[in-house]
Amino acid sequence: MMQEGLDDGPDFLSEEDRGPRAVNVDLQTDATLQVDISDALSERDKVKFTVHTKSTLPNFKQNEFSVVRQHEEFIWLHDSFVENEEYAGYIIPPAPPRPDFDASREKLQKLGEGEGSMTKEEFTKMKQELEAEYLAIFKKTVAMHEVFLCRVAAHPVLRKDMNFHVFLEYNQDLSVRGKNKREKMEDFFKNVVKSADGVLVAGVKDVDDFFEHEKTFLLEYHNRVKDASSKSDRMIRSHKSAADDINRIASTLYTLGTQDSTDVCKFFLKVSELFEKTRKIEARVAADEDLKLADLLKYYLRESQAAKDLLYRRGRALVDYENANKALDKARAKNKDVLQAETSQQVCCQKFEKISESAKQELIDFKTRRVAAFRKNLVELAELELKHAKGNLQLLQSCVGVLKGDT
Amino acid sequence: MAASSPRNPPPLPGADNQDPLSEMADEDSDEGEDIFVGNSNPVAESFQTDTANGEEPADLFSEEEISTTVNSSITTTKSNGVHSDNENDLFAEASVELSMENPSTIARENPTTTAKTSGAEFTPSRTQTQPKSIEQLEEDKDEDSFDMDVAVTNPEKIGDGMNAYIAYKVSTRTTLPMFKNRTFSVWRRFSDFLGLYEKLSVKHSLNGCIIPPPPEKSIVGMTKVKVGKEDSSSADFVETRRAALERYLQRVVCHPSLLQDPDVREFLERDELPRAVGTHTLSGAGFLKMINRASDAVSKMTVKISDSDAWFDNKLQEVESEELQLRKLHAVVESLVNHRKELCGNTAVFAKSMAMLGNSEDNTALSRALSQLAEVEDKMETLHQEQAASDFFILAELLADYIRLLGAVRGCFEQRMKTWQRWQEAQSTLQKKREVEAKLLWANKPDKLQQAKEEITEWEGKVTQYERDFDRISVTVRKEFLRFEKEKSKDFKSQIVKYLESLLQSQQRLVKFWEAFLPEAKAIG
Question: Which residue ranges form the domains of chain B, and what is each CATH number?
Answer without folding.
Answer: 145-273 (3.30.1520.10), 310-524 (1.20.1270.60)
